[in-house]
Design a protein that fits this description.
This protein is mainly α. The protein has helices spanning 8-28, 35-115, 127-135, 138-144, 150-167. It folds into 3 domains: 1-57; 66-115; 118-168. It contains 5 helices and no strands. It starts with 7 loop residues before the first helix and ends with a helix.
Length: 168
């Protein structure tokens, strides 16, 4: 135990004492059955010491394994938490974007409805605006949509003529 703890002087002293103990015991009891006891005793001491060392090494290995496991679990938990937070922020941004888009669309539609200016996208026209345009003549329509491109204007005239034919 002293050797494992780094106390080499104490370990050397214990080894010298044990060697002396065994040597004296064997010398005194040489030729009798008692000499065997002095040869077996150091083996028992060594076995107990090795067992304690192995238990300590095993305990340290288990502690190290547990620490590695806990560290890995903490890493995984942190990664999961980060991923959840990223997903939450992404969803919030998506919701905000949709709200802003909805607000912008309804603001444009409201402005177009109340100011007399028409949006440049057919899908943004309200049904009331479509009906009003369908009842108007081509010249009146031309005056109502001065900021709309020629090609778009032609397509709108075709659609409005169909609406006018259906309501007539």
């Amino acid at each position: 135990d002293a050797f494992r703890l780094g106390k080499y002087e104490a370990a050397a002293f214990a080894a010298v004492v044990m060697i002396a103990y065994v040597a004296i015991g064997v010398y005194e009891l040489w030729g009798t059955i008692g000499a065997i006891i002095f040869l077996i005793a150091p083996l028992a001491y060594l076995a107990v010491g090795l067992r304690e060392s192995l238990i300590e090494v095993d305990r340290q290995a288990k502690n190290e394994t547990a620490q590695k496991y806990n560290f890995r679990q903490a890493q995984l938990d942190a990664q999961l938490q980060l991923q959840i937070e990223k997903e939450r922020l992404k969803q919030e941004a998506s919701i905000k974007k949709a709200e802003l888009k909805q607000a912008a669309t309804s603001t444009r539609q409201e402005a177009a409805t109340y100011s007399g200016n028409l949006p440049s996208d057919w899908r943004q026209l309200t049904n009331a605006q479509k009906q009003k345009l369908a009842r108007a003549t081509r010249e009146e329509r031309e005056n109502m949509m001065p900021n709309i491109a020629d090609r778009t204007r032609r397509v709108w005239h075709e659609r409005l003529d169909k609406i006018a034919a259906q309501t007539a």
